[in-house]
Predict the 3D structure of the following.
Amino acid sequence: MLDSALSIFVAGRNLARLWEGLEITLWISLASVGLSIAFGVPFGLVMASGRRFWPKILRLYLEAVRVVPVLVLLFLFYYTLSSAFSVNLSAYVVSVLVFTIWGAAEMSDLVRASVTSLPAHQRESGRALGLTGRQVDLYVVVPQAVRRLLPGVINLTTRMIKTTPFVFFINIPDLMKVGQQIVEVAGMRNHLASVWVYGFIFLVYFAICYPVSLFSRHLEGRWQS
Amino acid sequence: MDLDFVIACAPLFAASAWLTVSLAFWGIALSLALGLLAALAGYYRVPILRRAAGAYIELARNTPLMIQLFFLYYGLPRLGILLEGRTCAVIGLTFLGGAYMAEAFRGGLTAVGRTQIEAGLSLGLNRVQLLRHVILPQALAVAIPVICATAIFLMKETSVFSIVALPDLMYLAKDLLKEGHSTESNLMLVLSYLVIILPVSLLFAWLERRARFAGFGS
């Protein structure tokens, strides 16, 4: 039983290919999370700013992205951009673009919530102590907002890692796609190939996401006050 | 824009949308049941079940639905367990959703105050009555927003069901791409999801407003 599993993973370059697939999965996740933070934080600050016009526009963007499944967005950007507007982007660019459009929207909501959830007396006390508006932002608002924000951001990171298998649909050779290719070849000779390979990928995702979730919970517990 | 094409393929989209809705309905309903059981196992500290529920929640929450479905649909038959595509989809969605629903219920259950339970006990309620009339109603009121958000999340997760060979909306859209009218069919795709998800999210917004008044003495 066990040697049937071993035979798949040592056959040819299978293990190396799975590793390459994992690398693609991780790179796409990393790029998307980084860009989502870069765009989501300013968007969130604008949404929390209480201005008249831009928060409404950003709210509309957030709701529009939220109501459509990410896979549908990926599909639209990959196929409609090329056919209707003749913009040809590589599958990798499209996947990072779409995950960022979605991630930045979710991130902006987290930032908005963490800033507006600060009780008003925190700012007021700062002002009463004679801090300038800038000092209040820097020494009172930012440190507390970041603490409230961080668990949510880490959570979003695991959500984005768990969303990357969608790139399977636009034929990027990520962990899932490589796994499927290996099963297709090995499955003819090895009866249990799909069990081993998909079970292995299941555990790989768990091994990546579980520690990150634990870390988020650890922060939540420590900073809850 | 080719209106004839849109009209011609509208019934196809309606059929696929119906499949998505019915699978989502069963998946969410069963998730609620499984989630409640898992949360209660933790709440009452049932010896072995509590550990099992904890492990299940971590496994389901930290892996993508797609790999869960792949395992169910392509892995299990090799072990002698043959499942239909629809069954796989509902089991997969329930496996994923149950863990999220359990977390939602857990949040609600821990929010029920100690004094509420003591008051119930001093009125002479037994454990079942206490759960049914005191704990669950209050826990549910607190958990409603998270339950609703999870239900919407699960509805969107149904978009991957075409990998277990189900003719859902994504499957249809991909199929129609070959016919050339990609702009029209993609528009129909987005429209179909809007028709499914928007009414539900409006209904949930209303439900959340109602539930906000349900907090008892807190």
Notes: The CA atoms of residues 25 and 164 of chain A lie 6 Å apart. The first helix of chain A runs from residue 2 to 10.
